[in-house]
Amino acid sequence: MKKLCSLIFAFIIIQTGSAQPKILPRAKILYKIKINTSENTTLHKGTLYSVNDSSVVLITDPDRHATKRNSGSEKKVIVSANQIDYILIWKKNRMGRSVLASTCIGGIIGTIVGYSTGNDKTGTVSFNPEEKALTGFIGGAIPGAIIGCFIGSFKIKIPINKNIDMLKNKRDFLARRSALEMP
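The structure corresponding to this sequence follows.
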């Protein structure tokens, strides 16, 4: 059983390294954005589309339950730097990815620890390595999922303070995360 798990794990690592040819471009990661005008008022929410020296362009989707990605309900909104107090930005679907990754990492570490402890001495309660590995997987996956929730909940706050110069300073940072390719 131990050899089978090691063989499957090695096969997965080898396949993921060569699964996609390197010629294909990577998909653009979309960033969600929330622009606030004061302490508690939100001006706009949506996907970051582009940034220039004096404004931020985002795509809003009022029909969040649309079946198609380009349903036609999206609209571009241009927000001037004079209206922006601060911007919150985060990766789209970050929570699910971080929970999945940390659950897998915690489960794998727990499984390795379970296998490495070996057999118990015979007595009233004794476990073989497979049972310890399963217990270690569950014991590592649950805290891993909780840690993933905390990691996935972080957002980057960019203060603009209704100042065009502050937006110009953060322009490159935001442009790298925009959906529109910048020159």
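The two ends are 54 Å apart (CA to CA).
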